[in-house]
């Protein structure tokens, strides 16, 4: 019998946003090479020759009380990553207007057709938060508007902004995988007006945007909303997601102190997206 070539870790992650992204980044550092998003969280794969018993000991997220993470381990034979990828990625249609699909899916002729290959990044439209942000964007006139996509992931929202007529788009993510994947997806969709930067809100100096999209997590948002408000033009819009219904009051208090008025909200399961306007 052939010896297994891979070790698979199957993680249950709560909450999955931003837990999956953080976990994936830390696993990549210690040698895990491929990842598949699951309904429970994340499956991660590493070659058996590179695996060792204490491989998870340096993962900080496992010691973080904000996340509940458990896992199981199995040895498996050679993995067909393309087959796994195709089996786990289905086209997403948002409000009948925007299609998010992989390169191996055929176009169905929707108003906005976006081709995404997320690799180690998240933002395919499958998750509730991305889906709701797309809904807000579809209902907003972005023609000739300047847009900021914070925590861009795959850059799917930045790509939609350009397809909706934005004159300039800035996409920022702190993760190297997301930065590289965003560049690939922007080229794949033939976008010309998107600039991708690796970093966080500290990059936002003396800049102004008509629309800011931030799909990150509650703690980062609470810390950075004031920065977003400073960079938002008068009558500009701020879209926020990446948190739960019970987090709404805290978000609203910070936004009110930042001269942002509440405009609308969308719920999807336990997740929420909020829209604010700069006074």
Could you characterize what this model shows?
There is one protein chain. This protein is α/β, with parallel strands linked by helices. The protein folds into 2 domains: 6-85, Alpha-Beta Plaits, CATH 3.30.70; 89-278, Rossmann fold (3-Layer(aba) Sandwich), CATH 3.40.50. It contains 7 helices and 14 strands. The strands form 3 sheets. Strands 10-9-8-11-12-14-13 form a 7-stranded mixed β-sheet, sandwiched between helices. The model has no long low-confidence stretch (mean pLDDT 89).
Please tag this protein with its features.
14 strands; 7 helices; 2 domains; 4-stranded antiparallel sheet; Alpha-Beta Plaits; 7-stranded mixed sheet; Rossmann fold; 279 residues; alpha/beta
């Amino acid at each position: 019998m052939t010896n297994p070539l891979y070790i698979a870790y199957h993680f249950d992650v709560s909450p999955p946003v931003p837990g999956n992204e953080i976990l994936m980044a830390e696993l990549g550092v210690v040698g895990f090479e491929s990842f598949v998003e699951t309904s429970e969280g994340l499956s991660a794969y590493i070659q058996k020759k590179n695996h060792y018993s204490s491989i998870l000991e340096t993962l900080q997220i496992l010691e973080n009380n904000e996340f509940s993470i458990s896992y199981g381990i199995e040895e498996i034979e050679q993995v067909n990553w393309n087959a796994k990828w195709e089996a786990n990625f289905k086209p997403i249609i948002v409000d009948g207007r925007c299609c998010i699909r992989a390169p191996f899916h055929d176009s169905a002729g929707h108003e906005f057709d976006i081709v995404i290959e997320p690799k180690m990044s998240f933002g395919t439209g499958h998750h509730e938060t991305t889906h709701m942000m797309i809904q807000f964007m579809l209902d907003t006139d972005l023609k000739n508007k300047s847009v900021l996509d914070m925590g861009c992931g795959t850059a799917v929202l930045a790509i939609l902004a350009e397809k909706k007529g934005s004159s300039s788009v800035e996409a920022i993510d702190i993760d190297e995988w997301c930065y590289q994947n965003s560049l690939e997806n922007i080229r794949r969709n033939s976008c010309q007006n998107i600039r991708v930067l690796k970093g966080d809100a500290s990059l936002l100096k003396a800049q102004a945007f008509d629309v800011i999209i931030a799909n990150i997590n509650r703690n980062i948002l609470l810390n950075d909303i004031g920065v977003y408000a400073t960079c938002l033009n008068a009558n500009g819009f701020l879209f926020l997601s990446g948190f739960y219904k019970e987090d709404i009051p805290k978000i609203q208090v910070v936004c009110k102190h930042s001269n942002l008025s509440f405009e609308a909200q969308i719920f999807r399961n336990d997740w929420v997206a909020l829209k604010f306007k700069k006074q």
